[in-house]
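REQUEST FORM: STRUCTURE PREDICTION
Request ID: SP-0412
Submitted by: Lab K.M.
Chain count: 1
Length (residues): 256
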Amino acid sequence: MKYAIITGTSRGLGEAVAKLLMTNHVHVVGISRKQSPILKQIASENNVTFQEINCDLGKIEELETLVQLAFKQIIRKEASELYLINNAAVIEPIEQGMNISPQALAYHFQVNAVAPMVLTNLFLKQANNIDIPVVSLTVTSGAAEKPTYGWSAYCSSKASINMYTKTIALEQEHLGTNHKVIAFSPGVMDTAMQEEIRSSSKTSFTSVGKFRAYKENNQLRDTEKIGKLVVQILLSKNIVNGKIYEAKDYLLPQES
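STATUS: Completed
RESULT:
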């Protein structure tokens, strides 16, 4: 029995991936601050289960309890394969680095970098204890490779995810486990995060005009389409450990 744990399932890419995995007969545990109104219905229609755990990933002290709750569900269902999708992230603060408060910076890194690392570490350890192979996928960004004015926090947190992914994958290869640790860069999607970006001032984010134009010119990628790519990669038998997968490599030229 296959089981997936997905963060940020209340909307956007996380919700899309949850729906698509359930249509592929994968049971899902969703971790989010808000509930999705449709995922339980999708689960019922596909004869799988969907369990929701409410959690603010910025509260690191809650993560170990969260993992224990999730694994109770997994053990109860006698899972044979396990997927962890670290999808949840924040874009704020969008601001010149020198104007970012220590508190805002700390929360940003807790959600975007520390939480995915902690969850992956804990899941790998727990999975070893019950001998279940894990595929861990964390959503990253092209911003990890390109400095962007006003995104010092976002660029840095995503860059740390890329290096973490490569390093943990290296460890798993050295240990000879069956675990795969990868990242996925979806490109610019039509999400609530994009709405936040478009509402920025040009003083804080000099590229705001370009992002507004993405929306105006219908250039934002559909989360359902990108979700299909995520699921395609997760269910593949040829996952390359430590790879940073990019949506653009799978899309037609007019979609990239």
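NOTES: Residues 102-130 form the longest helix (29 residues).
Reviewed by: T.R.
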